[in-house]
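Model: Ready when you are.
Researcher: Fold this.
Model:
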Amino acid sequence: MPKPDYRTYFLEGVSHFNAREFWEAHESWETIWLAAESDVEQFLQGMIQLAAAYHHVKRGTHRGAARLFEAALRRLAAFPQRFSGIDRGAAVEAARRWNPSLTEYPELILLPFQEAPVPPREVW
């Protein structure tokens, strides 16, 4: 079976995430994560965990969200802020600010991923 197109699914996930469609972002990124290798697999797992954390926030399951925020931020810390065609700095910073306040602030704080000057990394 051919590998899924990285660029298509990655950008689809970014678009879903920025639209606060976190489950859909998770699903898009998981499609390519399952076929990814090396460092890209780790990067995608961090992105998936970040989307899953926000999905938990929307559902009100803050304990699960806190664990996923921590895991995502730990995993993504190994990569440059601009990786695979996006600048995830604002999104990661929002997650850092929001996570410690899970029980204090029920509103959803999210800053979108920004486009970076290079296209998404082609890994296949």
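Researcher: Now this one.
Model:
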Amino acid sequence: MAYFVYILESERDGSYYVGYTADLGKRIDRHNQGDGRYTRGKLPWKLIYHEVFDSRGEAMKREREIKGRKDRSYITKLVETSKG
């Protein structure tokens, strides 16, 4: 089973949300239905980046790594690099 680390961008205020899941499409839909305290107030969300992992543990580790940077420019670079 594949796991995903994803980054969403709020179309409302441009803020980012980083998470992980086994079902990317379903999880994004749930965010956009208001499922989640942080994401509820910043609807709608769009997927701007994702990575695929073979295990839940790897995905969780990568999510923590991205969140641990606490640096908007780091996320912006990830997104820009993936487009180029």
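Researcher: Key takeaway?
Model: The radius of gyration is 12 Å.
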